[in-house]
From TrEMBL:
Residues 68-285, 327-436 form the Pyrroloquinoline quinone-dependent pyranose dehydrogenase beta-propeller domain. It comes from the Bacteria. Keywords: Membrane, Transmembrane, Transmembrane helix. InterPro entries: 6-blade_b-propeller_TolB-like, Beta-prop_PDH, Quinoprot_gluc/sorb_DH_b-prop. This is Putative dehydrogenase. It comes from Sphingomonas parapaucimobilis NBRC 15100. PANTHER family: LARGE, MULTIFUNCTIONAL SECRETED PROTEIN (PTHR33546:SF1), LARGE, MULTIFUNCTIONAL SECRETED PROTEIN-RELATED (PTHR33546). The chain crosses the membrane at residues 5-25. It holds the Pfam family TrAA12.
Amino acid sequence: MRKHVLIVLGIIVLIGIGVVTWLAWPDTARLSVDQVAGARPTIEAPREQTIPTVDIAKPVGWANGARPSVAPGLAIQAFASGLDHPRWLYQLPNGDVLVAETNSPPRPSSGIVQRVMNVFLGRAGAAVPSANRITLLRDTNGDGVADVKTPFLTGLNSPFGMVLFDGQLYIADTDALVRVPYQEGATKITAKPEKVVPLRPAGNHWARNVIASGDGKTLFVSVGSASNIAENGLGAEKNRAAILQVWPKDKNWRVYAGGLRNPNGMALNPVNGRLWTVVNERDMLGSDLVPDYLTQIEFGDHFGWPWYYWGGYPDNRVQPTNPPLQQYVKRPDYALGPHVAALGLTFSEGAKLGDTFARGAFIGEHGSWNRKPPSGYKVVFVPFAGAFPVPKAKPVEVVGGFLNAKGEARGRPVGVIVDKTGGLLVADDVGNVVWKVSAAK
């Protein structure tokens, strides 16, 4: 009798799982990425997922000399290869390029959704131990290939953003902003990093970025959320999902802007000096929601996370609710499409890639995991126009071909910078390459 009961219960459980799966997974996009991009994207009703749609491209790398595709009039070559998860790039005053070879620290493993994510993210390379290294790349003969590749600074903790400020190099580790003395032309730093301010430990979003403010007095540091929608409690999100302003001399800081689920790339608009960032929005509302975005940031801004998205649309999954906040939520300037995982950001100042790419922003889109079919996996250019410079037109693909015909990932772009020659450098953390995009000869 007991055996029969157990069998019946097992069948009921299996049926229940099947029904839930059928209702919630996988969710296939009904809109194109372009329809959910631009200054006025289409925002459809959410399709909440109990089991997340997971569609991560299997990493296979670049075989037999293959390379990404580029827009007409451009050419691409490997600036440096044989790296270990190159994520972020920074150019020093003498033209040397620093690349952060880095990866996520161990991720939390509680909850069924988190465990499922960890399995698939592990297959995508996220479980590979971090090299915890910044490497220096130098092109001594001007042929567009780094002939010097040497460890510059080691012993870090999932480093990401880098910036030179008042004679010191600042590095955004996952749990602290640190600094070391810098001497121009040096190929190695052996000094022990000094902690400037602590940062909340990794959580789901581990990468921290840092740039200098326009007035040269403070630094901006981005810190992503620990979760998707604060499902582990709001206490776990204190001083996260924000951009911090840091006074490095005094080692003081404040929250500069909040409600930003995972801000990553930051840059100052060269026309007016204003701070801009790209942000990864929330998951599990369907393949058409929510658009990642590009936006300018002012002190005191709040962009709604976790309660609201895209200027005030409520996320009913978040408890407790926060009705008073809705009227103050700032709408982003520009949508990049759903789940594209926008990480890299640099303005086109100094780029010599033709008139098409003369005024705007380059954005590295690492690629989706919670959308079917995949989105991102490319570098795009967002044109800016007008006396008050803001983005207007749809994104233009600059570098593509990261997915092969089978839907496998030959590469995934992250950081982007304009180098001293006017070329665009792209960190590819699956291909383990830094690519250089130049005007075709």
